[in-house]
Amino acid sequence: MNNMIHEIIKIITLSASLFAAPGAWAIGAIAIDNQLGDDEPAFGVSVGEDDKESAKKAALKYCRQAGGENCQFIVWFETCGAVAVSKKYYGYGYGSTKAKATGDALEMCNNNNCNIVAAECE
Questions:
Q1: pTM of this prediction?
Q2: Most buried of 23, 60, 61, 100 (most Cβ within 10 A)?
Q3: What's the pLDDT at 38?
């Protein structure tokens, strides 16, 4: 009987820990200001936010802090996000790995002069 109680307590403790995993579903977002004539587009990347709206607001804030005057929310992500820029182009990517996110960002930028300027994972 005593072993049975211990097993039940283990099951309850394990179940509770599965539901209480902090930050397990943190969200990130990307905002970009692709103003024509800028040397490079300003951008902002947020990570570790609790919800989509918080991630969006943080990315827009970071973009403005980087000098962007017309920052636009681009995308939110749950695992990895990346930004590639050149003097005239930008690209973004997201996915389950940093390699996937950066590869997609470079492909979207579609310019040999593009460089990854941010790549973040939760």
A1: 0.75
A2: 60
A3: 61
**Low-confidence winner among 15-19, 33-37, 64-68, 77-81 (lowest mean pLDDT):** 15-19
Which residues have CB under 8 Å from 70's CB, separation 6+?
33, 35
| 11 SS3 class | helix
Q: What percent of the chain stands above pLDDT 70?
A: 76
pLDDT digits (tens, 9 = 90+) for 64-99: 999 999 999 999 999 999 999 888 888 999 999 999
Residues 6+ apart with CB under 8 A from 98: 80, 82, 119, 121
Query: Are 71 and 56 within 8 A, CB to CB?
Result: no
64: CB partners within 8 A, 6+ apart:
42, 44, 71
Q: Cα Rg for the chain, rounded, in angstroms?
A: 20
